[in-house]
Specification:
This protein starts with 7 loop residues before the first strand and ends with a helix. Strands 8, 9, 10, 11, 12 and 13 form a six-stranded antiparallel beta sheet that branches. It has a four-stranded antiparallel beta sheet with strand order 4-7-5-6, with helices on one face. The mean pLDDT is 91. Strand 8 and strand 9 form a beta hairpin. It is an alpha+beta fold. The chain is 36% helix and 22% strand.
């Protein structure tokens, strides 16, 4: 690993979103890996005055370990573009799209890619009609939050309305999505290649915040349990989903497989977690790439990429 060629690296972490705690863990893990690799690295806890912070620091490339709004939605990417600083992950457009689950779904649908039926919710929604349309089995999501924050599974009109009010505390844009019964998978994408898929198993109603970051009984199946043919199908679907929103560098696509074996796209993540529970490092390890190697690879790709 030629870390000296990367120049001075700024690891951007923390931020002001609801995912701040997770971001700090991701950033610290990346920072420590770069230190161990002998890199010239600084850590920046991004605060409300991010432009001033970044303008006053000298660095050559940024590793974005920010999650959620302000760090994953195109805003910090736009700042770095204006500063003419290369950075890991997708550009402004793809970051903004992927952060918005509703508009991501609309683009996937327009591209002919499979994604579960969903409806936007508002105060005047007909809760009884919607729950019927969703076959009394749905999940309510804030459209622009990550780490499953603000999400609830619902079965009745009353639960749907109550969960809308709960999710609205996190985001003014809330959707209800048809629940897909079956196995959940995630596919990490690094530099245009899909890594081995991981199947997620949890005792919770779904892979929620606690299952992701705190529970000890969450299972990560790698190999994922699919046949070679089905895993390849899943990987190709993930690559198409990432490509159609303009994803670059690295990311992760979350997918459900229904009981008939069909895959359904849930969401895209353009700044995945890099904690000890995180999925991209796990998939990278399966192909022989250590955590420090993954970090340096992403930075090397960022420095060499022609954006646009």
């Amino acid at each position: 690993m030629n870390v000296a060629a990367l120049g001075k690296i700024a690891v951007l972490m923390g931020g002001t979103s609801a995912e701040r705690a997770v971001s700090l863990k991701s950033g610290q893990a990346v920072y420590s890996a770069l230190q161990q690799s002998g890199a010239d690295v600084i850590a920046i806890d991004v605060q409300a005055h991010a432009i001033e912070q970044l303008t006053n620091v000298d660095f050559d490339v940024a590793f974005i370990a920010l999650h959620g709004r302000g760090g994953e939605d195109g805003t910090i990417q736009g700042v770095l573009e204006w500063l003419d600083k290369p950075y890991t992950g997708s550009g402004v457009m793809a970051s903004a799209l992927a952060m918005d689950k509703w508009r991501t779904k609309l683009i996937w649908q327009a591209a002919g890619l499979p994604t579960p039926k969903a409806f936007l919710l508002n105060e005047d929604s007909d809760w009884s009609q919607l729950i019927a349309e969703l076959n009394a089995d749905a999940i309510v999501k804030p459209a622009r939050e990550g780490s499953s924050i603000g999400m609830r599974k619902v079965h009745t009109a009353e639960e749907l309305q109550d969960s809308f009010n709960f999710a609205r505390e996190y985001d003014g844009l809330v959707l209800a999505e048809s629940w897909v019964k079956g196995a959940e998978f995630t596919v990490a994408i690094v530099d245009g290649k899909a890594l081995p898929a991981i199947q997620l198993k949890t005792s919770h109603a779904f892979y929620d915040y606690d299952a992701k970051y705190q529970a000890n009984d969450t299972q990560y199946l790698l190999p994922c349990g699919l046949s070679a043919e089905k895993e390849q199908e899943l990987q190709q679907l993930a690559l198409k989903a990432f490509d159609v929103i303009g994803g670059q560098g690295w990311g992760r696509i979350d997918v459900m497989q229904d009981q008939n074996g069909r895959f359904w796209l849930l969401e895209a993540n353009t700044s995945p977690g890099m904690t000890d529970h995180s999925l991209v490092p796990m998939a990278a390890a399966a192909v022989g790439m250590s955590f420090p190697e993954l970090v340096v690879h992403l930075l090397t790709e960022a420095r060499g990429r022609v954006r646009g």
